[in-house]
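User: Here's a structure from my thesis project, written as structure tokens. My advisor, Dr. K., wants to see whether a designed sequence matches the one we expressed. Can you design one independently, without my sequence as a hint?
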């Protein structure tokens, strides 16, 4: 099979804020070209012409792609004009959508640099949700179940903590509880609206592999009761019985990323009847 030709490409990212938007778009595109050698130059908080000009001169010297999210009009237009004059590929990521929304609504953009990252109510709600998730992780305090927006239940290695943190970044206050046959379920769980509870499960074989790897990472033998298949099946059966009694939604995470599971949860937490998503 013929090998793809090797290329070195330079990308200059310019933003009036932290530059995450442009960087993530570029990374998504570059993921489609794994054989390309990439040189990325990141210039955040560019809000004055005197700061912008040397960046564009460097982009010219590198013959770079210029990707920017500048919303201050004179900086944005100057960047676009400079790149056109120097024959540099230039991508003004926000321009087309801002233009179309303006035409459709008749409203003008506020042109405020860093507007997405201002310290608004959403920011503080996110911080509060993250602190909540840390405080009530792994069933540390059953009182958290009553104050949570969402309660995650699951046997060990069903992604409870990563999901809690991911959803906290969406400003959702999450408490989670590990499920095992020997441990009594806190009374508070039975007081939570089933619409706010999600039962997580996994395939027995996947759990077996995860748990063996965890034991090896700890420097222990992979063959323990923790990774025993009969034990895992018993845990899963116990969890399913609990979920049925609670009447909560059940999600199998075995073939899903954290992002996919979170998307399902966010669109399904209003479901009242027991629903199993495999």
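Assistant: Designed independently from the structure alone:
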């Amino acid at each position: 099979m013929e090998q793809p030709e090797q290329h070195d490409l330079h990308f200059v990212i310019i933003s009036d804020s932290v530059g995450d938007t442009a960087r993530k778009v570029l990374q998504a595109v570059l993921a489609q070209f794994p054989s390309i050698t990439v040189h990325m130059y990141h210039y955040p908080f560019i809000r004055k012409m005197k700061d912008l000009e040397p960046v564009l001169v460097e982009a010219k010297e590198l013959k770079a792609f210029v990707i920017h999210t500048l919303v201050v009009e004179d900086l944005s237009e100057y960047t676009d004009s400079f790149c056109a004059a120097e024959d540099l590929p230039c991508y003004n990521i926000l321009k087309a959508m801002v233009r179309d929304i303006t035409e459709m609504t008749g409203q003008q953009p506020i042109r405020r640099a860093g507007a997405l990252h201002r310290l608004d109510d959403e920011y503080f709600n996110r911080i509060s949700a993250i602190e909540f998730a840390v405080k009530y992780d792994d069933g540390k305090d059953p009182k958290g179940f009553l104050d949570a927006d969402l309660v995650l239940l699951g046997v060990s290695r069903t992604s409870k903590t990563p999901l809690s943190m991911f959803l906290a970044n969406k400003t959702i206050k999450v408490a989670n509880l590990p499920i095992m046959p020997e441990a009594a379920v806190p009374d508070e769980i039975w007081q939570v609206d089933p619409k706010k509870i999600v039962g997580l499960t996994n395939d027995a074989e996947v759990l077996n592999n995860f748990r063996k790897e965890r034991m090896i990472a700890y420097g222990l033998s992979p063959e323990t009761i923790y990774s025993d298949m009969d034990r895992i099946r018993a845990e899963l059966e116990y969890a399913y019985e609990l979920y049925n009694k609670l009447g909560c939604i059940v999600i199998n995470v075995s073939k899903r990323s954290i992002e996919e599971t979170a998307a399902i949860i966010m669109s399904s937490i209003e479901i009242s009847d027991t629903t199993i998503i495999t």
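When you compare it with your expressed construct, this may help: The chain is about 45% helix and 15% strand.
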